[in-house]
């Protein structure tokens, strides 16, 4: 069973209900909604579509809202048609909502003209076009085209090395976040995080919306985030290594090392890691990935990341379902050939030492007894996450009391959430889980399974529990 999770982005190429269903059937565990594009009505429709498809598939699938953040984008163009910027030409970039052309582009972000200086570089459309700033009067930038190309509407503009004044959470983000929480999204990716303060602001918005425990994913895209990584990890429920913008903000050759360092730091704290951007980029148009792309995915598996994300491949590509099928195949093979992941020594929080002891005991018991699976009986997902951090050799089934808790666990490495209504005591919980596992075919009747539950409550008899059982014994007794 594949342990590394797949995140697929929905977009024009994948918004039809039958395509969404096919993406889930192909193995997608988390569906991403990119709020930089589309409408709120469209996103609401997608949430409904995903929930219905997940029910039909009988699977737990999380919905991740990806906030736009303070990303600078080009504005409107005449008739929506692309323009061509040629080398050595002069181009002006003004602030406002006017229609741009080959000589003057619009941006809605006033901070760009206020921040750049002569000699600064501007990278457009993921670096495909490069400009050099000649001057800025605070409202309009005049630049020289170093490397030209075709430019469309709403393409990103990056100013490497330039400190922009806005935080990682804009007014639009706050409004979109409140809307997403109302829709019931399970995960929220906060874009262009610069410090832990950005996540604290997002948490406060979630608290005011009545969702204080929603999982926040910090997107690491800027040098400031790398510098404040430890605090960001402590304030988040997961991180995304957004290699696209990282490779624009920092020298491209530094990105592989940063991916490794971020993954190592996150795993040391037990924070899930998503690797994103250009994973199977060639498959936007081609039927097969390049050898380099396959190797890139295998490297991420060797680093024991929790999830791999497809963006444009499934959102606007020609073969969205095939991309997920291909990634699933690569991940399965990579996991088979990679060394067993080793849990970091600091994989557990230090506040409750019995947490680690019980989870380590469960993993050891499963390994030495040859148990087919570990079942984490959990109320809020804590036990399952603790086990995932240890990277056990057995699949972890997380028996969650609600869809919300189960969905939030969909991102965690090696965890297969199932929804089981809580019983009066641990024995009732265990019996219900056993029946569910056997009925669904997840575990064969008679198979050995380790059951574990971890709680901070030490005074309750059933609060902390560890047992090795043969599934079906209780049902037949």
CATH class of the largest domain: Alpha Beta
What amount of the residues lies in strands?
Answer: 15-25%
Poorly predicted runs of 5 or more residues: none
Going by CATH, the homologous superfamily of the largest domain would be Phosphoenolpyruvate-binding domains
Strand order of the largest sheet: 1-2-3-13-14-15-16-17
Count of folded domains:
3
Task: Please tell me what the overall shape is.
Answer: elongated
Q: Gap between N and C termini, in Å?
A: 31 Å
Describe the structure in your own words:
- The structure is a single chain.
- By secondary structure, the protein is of the alpha/beta class.
- The chain has three domains: 5-69 and 167-336, TIM Barrel; 72-158, M1 Pyruvate Kinase, Domain 3 (Beta Barrel); 353-476, Pyruvate Kinase, Chain: A, domain 1 (3-Layer(aba) Sandwich).
- It is built from 17 helices and 22 strands.
- It has helices at 17-25, 40-57, 111-115, 171-183, 196-208, 223-227, 229-235, 243-249, 255-269, 291-302, 312-315, 320-337, 353-369, 382-389, 403-408, 426-440, 473-476; strands at residues 5-10, 30-34, 62-66, 72-73, 83-85, 90-95, 104-107, 121-124, 129-136, 140-147, 149-151, 156-158, 187-190, 215-220, 238-242, 273-276, 307-310, 373-377, 395-400, 415-419, 448-453, 465-470.
- Helix 10 (291-302) links the parallel strand 16 and strand 17 (307-310).
- The longest helix has 18 residues, at 40-57.
């Amino acid at each position: 069973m594949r342990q590394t999770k797949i995140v697929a982005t929905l977009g024009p190429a994948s918004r039809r209900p039958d395509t969404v269903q096919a993406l889930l059937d192909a193995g997608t565990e988390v569906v991403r909604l990119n709020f930089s594009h589309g409408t709120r009505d469209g996103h609401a429709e997608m949430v409904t579509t995903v929930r219905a498809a997940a029910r039909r598939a009988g699977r737990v699938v999380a919905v991740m809202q990806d906030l736009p953040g303070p990303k600078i984008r080009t504005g409107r163009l005449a008739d929506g048609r692309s323009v061509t910027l040629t080398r050595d030409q002069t181009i002006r970039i003004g602030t406002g909502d006017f229609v741009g052309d080959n000589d003057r582009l619009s941006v809605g972000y006033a901070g760009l003209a206020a921040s750049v200086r002569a000699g600064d570089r501007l990278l457009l459309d993921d670096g495909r076009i490069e400009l050099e700033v000649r001057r800025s009067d605070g409202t309009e930038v005049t630049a020289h085209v170093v490397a030209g190309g075709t430019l469309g509407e709403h393409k990103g503009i990056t100013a490497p090395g330039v400190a922009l004044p806005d935080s990682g959470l804009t007014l639009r983000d706050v409004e979109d976040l409140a809307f997403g929480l109302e829709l019931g999204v399970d995960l929220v990716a906060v874009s262009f995080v610069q410090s832990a303060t950005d996540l604290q602001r997002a948490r406060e918005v979630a608290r005011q919306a009545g969702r204080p425990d929603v999982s926040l994913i910090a997107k690491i895209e800027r040098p400031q985030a790398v510098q404040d990584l430890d605090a960001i990890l402590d304030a988040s429920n997961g991180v995304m290594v957004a290699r696209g913008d990282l490779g624009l903000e920092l020298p491209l050759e530094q990105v592989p090392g940063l991916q490794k360092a971020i993954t190592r730091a996150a795993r040391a704290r037990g924070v899930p890691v998503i690797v994103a951007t250009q994973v199977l980029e060639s498959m936007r148009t081609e039927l097969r990935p390049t050898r380099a792309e396959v190797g890139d995915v295998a490297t991420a598996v060797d680093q024991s990341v929790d999830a791999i994300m497809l963006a444009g491949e499934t959102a606007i590509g020609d073969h969205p379902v095939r991309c997920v099928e291909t990634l699933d195949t690569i991940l399965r093979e990579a996991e088979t050939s990679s060394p067993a992941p080793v849990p970091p020594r600091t994989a557990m929080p230090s506040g409750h030492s019995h947490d680690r002891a019980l989870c380590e005991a469960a993993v050891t018991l499963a390994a030495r007894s040859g148990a087919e699976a570990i079942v984490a009986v959990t109320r809020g997902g804590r036990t399952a996450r603790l086990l995932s951090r240890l990277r056990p050799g057995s699949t972890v089934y997380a028996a969650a009391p609600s869809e919300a808790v189960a969905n939030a666990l969909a991102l965690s490495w090696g965890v297969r959430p199932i929804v089981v209504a809580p019983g009066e005591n641990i024995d009732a919980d265990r019996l219900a889980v056993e029946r569910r596992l056997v009925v669904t075919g997840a575990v064969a009747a008679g198979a050995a399974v380790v059951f574990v539950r971890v709680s901070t409550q030490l005074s309750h008899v059933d609060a902390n529990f560890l047992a090795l059982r043969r599934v079906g014994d209780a049902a037949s007794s």
